[in-house]
Amino acid sequence: MSVVVKSKHEIALMEEAGKRLSETLQYLKEQIRPGISTGELDHLGRKYIENMGCVPSFLHYNGYPASICISVNDEVVHGIPSREKILKDGDIVSLDAGLIYEGFHSDAARTYPVGVISKEARQLIEVTKQAFFEGIKYARAGCHLYDISAAIDDYVTPFGYGIVEDLVGHGVGRNLHEDPQVPNFRQRRKGIRLQEGMTLAIEPMINIGTCEVEWLDDDWTVVTADGSLSAHYENTVAITDGEPELLTIER
Ligand code: MF3
Ligand code: CO
In DSSP terms, which residues pair with 238 in a beta bridge? Predict the structure, then answer.
């Protein structure tokens, strides 16, 4: 396993990649409404990214056929957008997007409500987001990688939710997926010691019910095994000599 430590200059490029991605997600959030298809959202996202002169990094990645992963309700991640798939009032929709700017990737995800959603769904979305913020309290030079995993687990588990274990966060940089893997659940080991210049995509995926997931026949879409709702929240994070820097956060 080799973790790539980025220089100040490389971090500056990743800051720009992150800023552009957060703008993309903010734009897409504004397009969400009952009646829009996930295929249309993907199309709008691809155009937005390309119009900035960037490359949508998911498109054709390991054969993935779209630019934005769009996962509705019990879909956890990697949902495939379609013009036939129409969002309706009460749905929750996860948008996961990545782009390349000057050779560097940024990667981020959010779960948004469609119209008016249930109290249960709102809480799931909030807890998943907060799990990320609990985790990054340990995204600091000198902490161990799995301090992040444990903090997410300790925050989420009391809610009775299932933390997805089959998919994890990851290093990110010149490649979409770099070492190390970043699990969202407690590990027995401590993991590597974090250093300034490491860049991680930290991404809790949380289900209201069981942690177990299944893959659909499209070979991509991951769904909860019990059909319960799932939420996702992800940012690209740089380890600094102080506070973690959230490269893809809304500004
Ligand atoms: N954000 C996803 C991840 O972290 C990437 C989507 S996989 C793709 O790992 F194939 F759709 F690109
Ligand atoms: Co990711």
Answer: 199, 245
